[in-house]
Amino acid sequence: MKTEGQIEPVMDLNGSPIDRSSLSCHAPIWQDILAQAVTGEQLAAMNYTSLSEICDDPAEVADALEHAAGERGHAASFAAEGRKIGVDVDNNVDAMHWRRLREAFLGCIAERDFIGCLIVQEIMLESFAVASYARVAKVAPGSLGETFARIAADEEQHVDHAMAILRAERALDPERFDDKVYRLHFDVMTTLAKMLAKECKDGHCEVCHSSCVKPSLGDVSLSAAELRGASLEQYLKALDMLGLPGEVTLAWVTQLPI
Amino acid sequence: MGYAVANLARREPAIEVDFALIGHQESWRAAADILAVLRGGELTALPDDEIKDILPWIPPRTVCHVDIESRAGGNARGLYIDCFIPPDRLEAAYVHENLARVRAAASCAIKSGAKIVSLGGFSSILIEGNFDQLPEKHNTVFTTGNTLTVGFIVQGIKKMCALEERNLRNATLLIIGATGDVGSGCARCLAPVVKRVLLNARNIERLRRVATELEAEGVEGELSTDLQRFPTQADIVICAASLGCPSLLLDRIAPHALVCDAGYPKNLSPNAGLVGATVFFGGLGQIAGGLSFTPDFFGILNRHPFPNVVHGCLLEGMALALEGRFEPFSKGRGFITPKRVAEIETIAARHGIHLAPFSNADGPLERQFEYQTQSSRRWVAGPVRPPSERT
Lengths: 258, 391
Fold this sequence. Notes:
- The structure holds two protein chains of two kinds.
- The termini of chain A are far apart.
- Chain A contains eight helices and one strand.
- Chain A is 68% helix and 1% strand.
- Chain A has a single domain, classed as Ferritin, CATH 1.20.1260.10.
- In chain A, α3 runs antiparallel to α4 (114-139), α3 packs antiparallel against α6 (174-196) and α5 (142-172) runs antiparallel to α6.
- The radius of gyration of chain A is 20 Å and the shape is globular.
- By secondary structure, chain A is mainly α.
- Chain B is α/β, with parallel strands linked by helices.
- Chain B folds into two domains: 19-147 and 285-355, no CATH class; 156-284 and 361-390, NAD(P)-binding Rossmann-like Domain (Rossmann fold).
- Chain B contains eleven helices and 17 strands.
- Chain B has a six-stranded mixed sheet with strand order 5-4-1-3-2-13. Chain B has a six-stranded parallel sheet with strand order 8-7-6-9-10-11, covered by helices on one side. In chain B, strands 14-12-15 form a three-stranded antiparallel sheet.
- In chain B, α5 (146-163) packs across α6 (181-190) and α5 (146-163) packs across α9 (338-350).
- Chain B is globular and about 55 Å long.
- Chain B starts with 18 loop residues before the first strand and ends with a helix.
- Classes of the chains: A mainly alpha, B alpha/beta.
- β1 of chain A pairs parallel with β8 of chain B.
């Protein structure tokens, strides 16, 4: 056979380096990102404290309170990162979305529904935290990025432990368990989806210190769409690990508000 | 935390699964239609920009159940698992990401208890040279499905030549993507029965290996990584490349060439400018016994102008499941021979799986044939023309 002889390059596997934003000029953006993180951690601390009140076993009470202290420690770490860049980081657990999330958790507490509490906190809220923090850690410079990465890893450990308990619970009665997850999904994930939407359609979130931070996220190499996508991916993977049917959970996620 | 962990007994899958089909969508429209079905008719459809934002984050997972019936009387139940590879991320830059998606989809199939898994479209291309990268398989076997795809491409070429009264033995055959499993399989089946063969692919060393193999069989031809370098115009073309190119064939084919686009995604864009050529989609088969999806994705997962039409790569797994032959029939790259093609065609035919009616981007071609036959071979305008109009 005749041969023409040139080998064309088959693929280019070189990745592009990640842009890292400077802190000083973007301090107001980091301030709002940190405010959301501190609020989430404070809310988690409150949730674990509430959980301790429905635990019967003293060891479980101690564990829940230890977790609450851990979450307060995370909030303090984020606030300290704010001080390093010269901004005050407020938190507002009474802001409209966060308040609704707290109410959903308290609904489970009122029913002394320990499993429901774990589903809300460890599967739904922590999926959001782990995925968002991990994305922020990739672009935040210096100790700010390191803090987000460290806390994302801490939160992932919580999820791993809760996963074993929840899988055991699901094994007892999958249908009942999946129904419970769906009820809580409808309430909690609808609220989270509104928080993660590309635009805040319900007005100001009451956490950002002035106007909504979402349109400015691109300045620090983030986007609302990316944070939402990563959070939903983490959530779907968590539900997969619990053993819920993938086609069912995908339908749930596609039905969330945008 | 110290909460008691109850017995973590493994539950058996609720429904026994014979086969799993791993695939992905070749267009944003197709991906949007899948999400629309899952979202339900009561909610407004997701806007296109939201779909492009969300889809890349969806982990591979089961989308629906698939039931098929054999003409021989049996039936089989399976799953369709989508890798959710974004349609604009099929190029080489995303190969590692896409391979990870196919691996995750394979894990879903294994977890479901599927006995045989067919790898559709790009997942087959990614895995055909990387079978060792599939997860530990337990009782699940994987097939690329490429042997039946080759069978339907070859059948299609032969049938279309017969319908258009073309003489295959006088033809110059061009295979684009000739070093891939499908392209090289087509070369082994068709090169001995055509006058001359032109082989095109991106990697010259692999092209030389295919050419050497064919030369040993007495086949004459040429090879090139650049279509423009071939001195001869082809009058039959098989597009089996892994990626499309709108200007792939311009000026390099005879005025009235027969072009089989067997790519997934399609190698040729609808406006490829192949004026005068007969273009048809190849590698497709039809299940006479029927197939159904739960939930109902009919016409969405099988986006063809004829019912029950599926790509050959997926049909191979279904045929083997109906046959009860749970084996990796197509594995690796470069092992498809005419004998293996005949074997899988026989199995498929036994269960009522045959070459699909012809179609292309403009719709069905087969109906035109029927019309033309009834009207004393008066041919209507369209891509299929009689010999008198091709000279």
